Automatic annotation (TrEMBL):
This is CKLF-like MARVEL transmembrane domain-containing protein 4. Keywords: Membrane, Transmembrane, Transmembrane helix. The chain crosses the membrane at residues 29-48, 54-77, 89-108, 114-137. One of its GO terms (cellular component) is membrane. PANTHER family: MARVEL DOMAIN-CONTAINING PROTEIN, MARVEL-CONTAINING POTENTIAL LIPID RAFT-ASSOCIATED PROTEIN. The keyword Transmembrane applies. The keyword rRNA-binding does not apply.
Length: 155
């Protein structure tokens, strides 16, 4: 009499809770908080030309950065196909430029003298700066991954 035992294993993404304590993880958390602050400030501010753009950028950046943070913490980013270092690098370039534009729009709105518009401009500039720093780190990580890929390629 022969018995057969079948075993199934499910490969789950490995969690990386240490990512939150790393520099990229801390930057993502700061970006998420700044996006929320910009959103709150622009909602409190009376309507002015361009406030819709600032609102849109704050919410879009909040959602996408939160998704990226979750992907990194859960370990899903390493299992997804595609050049994710490059994708994140391009995302951070685009969002930093968009926050620079949002800062300019909010700074122009400061002429109305409302404190919430002034706060929006200040936090948009801070967001632009933090996303810019993260862009630099993403560029370094992408460059490092490119060098590793090229040097370990087939001979």
């Amino acid at each position: 009499m022969s018995t057969t035992q079948t075993t199934t294993t499910t490969i789950m993404p490995s969690e990386d809770p240490g990512y939150i304590r790393s520099v990229p993880g801390i930057l993502k958390i700061v970006e998420i908080i700044l996006c929320l602050v910009v959103f709150i400030c622009v909602i409190i501010a009376p309507g002015y030309g361009g406030s819709g753009w600032v609102w849109f950028i704050a919410i879009s950046a909040f959602i996408t950065t939160l998704i990226l943070l979750i992907f990194h913490v859960v370990g899903l980013i390493s299992r997804l196909p595609g050049p994710w270092m490059l994708i994140e690098f391009i995302y951070y370039i685009v969002i930093a430029v968009f926050f620079l534009i949002a800062f300019i729009i909010a700074a122009v709105g400061c002429r109305y003298g409302y404190a919430s518009i002034i706060a929006t401009a200040i936090f948009c500039f801070a967001s632009c700066a933090v996303f810019g720093v993260d862009t630099y780190f993403q560029f370094q990580a992408w460059r490092t991954s490119q060098t590793t890929t090229i040097s370990t390629g087939p001979a």
